[in-house]
Amino acid sequence: MGEVANSAITGIRDPEREGFIASTLFSQGWNITLRALDFDQIDQLCSKEAVDKATIILATDLEGLTPAAIAELKSRGYPVFLFAPKDSTPSSFAGAQEFPTTALELISLMRGSLRAPMIRAQAQSAPTRARTIALAASASSSGCTQTAINLATELSLLGKRTLLVDAHAQAPAISSLLGQRGLRASVRHPQISENLWGMEISQANLESDLGQLHSARSEFDFIVIDLGTLRNIAAQLTGKRWESEAFIWSSTYADELWLLSKSDQLSLERLRELLRELSQNSIKPALVAVQSMRTPGKKNSPLDQSFTQSISAIKPARVIALPTDSRSVLRAESERSSLYEVNERSHLRRCLAEIAGQLIS
Fold first, then answer.
1. Percentage of the chain modeled with pLDDT above 70
2. Nearest to 287 by CA among 274, 301, 268
3. Which of 55, 67, 142, 262 has the fewest CB atoms within 10 Å, counting from its CB?
4. H-assigned helices in 229-264
5. DSSP for 9-41?
6. Do 327 and 190 share a domain, yes or no?
7. Domain range holding 148?
8. Are residues 175 and 84 in the same domain?
9. Do residue 172 and residue 209 come from a single domain?
10. Per-residue model confidence as pLDDT tens digits over 330-339
C-alpha cells in the first residue's frame, strides 16, 4: 500500500503569503484540504470525525481566531503552526513565529524533527561551528558505514574535533565495527580516539539524541553521519516514523549529503530512482555523488560512464571515486579499527585522507 499524502489546512488572510505556503506544500506532495477565510470554516471541518489529522497553518490575524481556539485544535490532536506578520503588533498568541520567507524554510518547519518546539528553538539559537556531512547509500553493501568511519577518522587525524554519528535506524553497525559498545548507552558522546567522538541515534532516546546533535553543531569542527540506505524519500521527509528523523534532521542542517553507489546495474538503477525522488523534494545539503568500490584501472571505463550518466540529472556539487580495497576493509572489520590503523598505505585509506585534507583546506 502506498504512503498516504500529508494534508494541510491554511487560515491566512494575506493572499500572497497563503498562496506561497499552499503552492510550496503542494509542490512537495501535500494535499491542501481547505484554504479558509475565517476560523469558523476551520472549526466546522475539524469538528467532523477524521482518521488523519491535517496540519493546520494559521496567521494571527485570521478572523475569529483566539488562543482558546488554538488550544482546542491541539487538544483534538491537530498539529498547529502559527505565524505572525513581521511588523505586526504584539498579541496574546504565544509561540507565534515570523512567516517563513523561502520554500526550504517552510518545508523544514513541516518536517518531523522540527515539530518539537524545544528542538526548533534550540536550532534557531545555537551558533554553528561544525561542517556536517551526511552519508547515504542507494543500495545495501555500498560501503556507506566504512566510508563514514574512515572519513571521520582522517578528519580527526588532521586535528579536527569530529563527531561520528550512527543514524542507521535498521542496522546500526559503528559500535560493533569499532568495538564501542557504549555509543547508544552514553548520555554524552564517548571518545573513540584523539579528536574523535561517537554517538548512536536510537528510538528510546530520540529526542535527547536530536538535542545532542544540535548542541554538537557548536562543539565540533565536523559531524559525519551514517544514514545507511535511503529509500522512498518523500515518505521519509513527510512521515512520522522515528526511523526517518535522522534523515529529516540531515535534510535541514547538513552541509553535504554524500550519495554512495556502486556501478553495477542494480545499484545504478536504485541510484537513479533515488535521484529522481531527491529532485522532487527540496533539501538543504549540497549533493555529492560517490562512486564506491570502483575497480582500479583505466579511467572512463564503461562502468565509469554508466555512473556519470546516472548522476548527470542532479549536477552534483562534487563527484568522488573511492577504490575497492576489500582486503584492508575486512582486516579493519576483523580488528575493529580504522583503515589508518590496519594499513596506513591502503589505496582506499589514502584516497579518504586526501579528501579529508581537501575538506579542511
1. 90
2. 274
3. 67
4. 233-238, 245-253
5. EEE-S-HHHHHHHHHHHHHTT-EEEEEESSHHH
6. yes
7. 131-360
8. no
9. yes
10. 999 999 999 9
